[in-house]
Amino acid sequence: MESAIKNGVPGVEAECGGACACATCHVYVEEEWRAQTGEPSPMEEDMLDFGYEIKPNSRLSCQIKVREELDGLVVRTPERQT
Ligand code: FES
Q1: Tell me, what CATH number does 67's domain have?
Q2: Atom 3 in ligand 1: which residue has the minimum CA distance?
Q3: Among 6, 17, 38, 61, which residue is least crowded by beta carbons within 10 Å?
Q4: Which protein residues touch ligand 1 with a CB less than 6 Å away?
Q5: CA-to-CA distance for 55 and 69, rounded, in angstroms?
Q6: What is the H or E stretch that residue 29 is in?
Q7: What is the mean pLDDT of the chain?
Q8: How far is the CA of 32 from the centre of ligand 1 (A)?
Q9: Is position 45 within any domain?
């Protein structure tokens, strides 16, 4: 989420600033990256209920911690945020 905001990526609004309290940083993680990004926490899952067109590969991008193994990570943004 922070990388998207700093680089002006459209479609990531992040209204709560990364506090897992808005779901406007919703992204779809590409299938080949799902294992590396892991599963959402229970708190993230609860907040995802407020996201737009949630899918099995939905994540809140503010909850994905960037680390070396995620170099090249591909995510897509939904048509709109809630
Ligand atoms: S920035 Fe609000 S939930 Fe991610």
Answers
A1: 3.10.20.30
A2: 20
A3: 6
A4: 1, 14-16, 18-25, 47, 60, 62
A5: 24
A6: strand 26-29
A7: 96
A8: 23
A9: yes
